[in-house]
Design goal:
Layout: H1 6-17, H2 23-34, H3 46-58, H4 75-87, H5 100-108, H6 123-140
Helix pairs in contact: 1-3, 4-6
Length: 142
């Protein structure tokens, strides 16, 4: 994934200077928002920066759920959904349903081995996603 650009850094610093009292407070808030601890804005990638800028300008989070749309007739997609349940990536209000926003966000992240919508992936690419999710589960139980 490509690194943050200078204009994005400037835009985020301008936005954040009016919202947070200190650098530490800003970095703590941004870390919480993206779900990864950062020590500098320069550690963000372009996608994370775009999402933060969008959020600060509109008050809305980006919708990642379209990346997690699945084919209920595809056995690999059903496996991905099962793994999401095992990880606890479910909707708060309806725990029987996978949180597509979270899965889609993960698919867009640096942690995903394939950065594309689930429905556009080949069998081999979905296999990589399944393997990565299985490894996340294994690491949780170590």
């Amino acid at each position: 994934m490509s690194t943050i650009t200078k204009p994005q850094i400037q835009q985020l610093q301008t936005i954040c200077s009016g919202k947070f009292r200190s650098r530490e407070e800003r970095l703590e808030a941004l870390s919480e928002m993206i779900g990864v601890e950062i020590n500098s804005i320069k550690e963000l990638n372009r996608l994370q920066a775009d999402e933060l800028i969008y959020f600060f300008n509109t008050g809305k989070t980006l919708d990642h759920s379209s990346w997690a749309m699945f084919d209920k007739h595809n056995s690999q997609h059903k496996t991905v959904l099962s793994l999401c349940h095992q990880l606890g990536w479910v909707q708060e209000a309806n725990p029987q349903f996978v949180d597509l926003q979270r899965l889609g966000g993960w698919l867009k992240s640096d942690r995903s081995p394939v950065k594309m919508p689930l429905k556009e992936m080949s069998r081999a690419e979905v296999s990589k996603i399944i393997y990565a999710l299985q490894n996340i589960i294994k690491s949780q139980y170590k």
